[in-house]
Amino acid sequence: MPVITPIGLDPSHPFPRVLNKSLNFAVELEGRDAFGRSSDAAIVQAPRVLPRVIQLPRELGDSEYCFVFLSSILHEFVHELFAGMKVLGCYQFRVTRNSNLFVDEEAVKNLRTKIQGELPQRHFGDAVRLEVANNCSEAMTEFLLGHFNLTERDLYRVAGPVNLVCLMQVPDWVMRDNLKFKPFKPGTPKALQKSSNLFEAIRGGDILLHHPYQSFNPIIELLEQSATDPQVVAIKMTVYRTGTDSVLMQSLLRAAQNGKEVTVVVELMARFDEGANIGWATKLEEVGA
After folding, report:
1. Which of 128, 147, 162, 198 can bridge 94 by disulfide, Cβ–Cβ 3.0-4.6 Å?
2. Radius of gyration of the chain (CA)
3. With 0-12 CB in 10 A as exposed, 13-18 as middle and 19+ as buried, what is 122?
4. Could you tell me the CA-to-CA distances from 87 to 67, 82, 228 in Å, in that order?
5. Tell me: the pLDDT tens digits for 60-79?
């Protein structure tokens, strides 16, 4: 079990730093470990590199598709992590932390630098909520609340896994199209279906795009054509939220590299996308935008 590191709590092994919304287990123990040390509590952090839901091989299940929670596997074999000790209880828990960035936009001289300095601490902000398994003992619950400086008002007892978002990926693993909705295909306005040249289509009249019901591809194609069209001299755009791998942003970079006057207003404070936006802002500046 090279990716699992159990931590027995004692004066020389303090409570580990728990990431925001990470899966963890509080273990109640009795006895002494292989080194003769006694500890009545331990923390096991579920490795982030492992999937929260695991599909079993066909030969291990009694149906075509069988799945098991990572938490169930850890519950079943947690005793093997504490040789010589008796496991009295194992309870999963999750902490939600305050993820706000404390940046005064009016007071700082360089907003981008300030945000970059704040981002690494986002996952370790003050705890605001504690979720525990509904069978967690009162003693362990009080211990966790005390450690995270929370009260009973911040406690949520959960019957089952503390994070069901992981189930969102399961339908993709099950090849049963009769149980799924047909994928939605965004439409394209008739005016754009007749011509591959966006500029020609626009000259014919205004075109309204209604997202997400209509395709975003015309916007991408417009930027791609603008990046290489010799008659386009400038591109101005506002970007609020985009991914780390964005075709749209790549087109803007290519336009600037081709000598176009590119001006982009990038929202650095787009919640949870600050890092990606800062990265794009830096790349745009590097090519002269």
Report:
1. 162
2. 26
3. middle
4. 26, 8, 66
5. 888 889 999 999 999 999 99
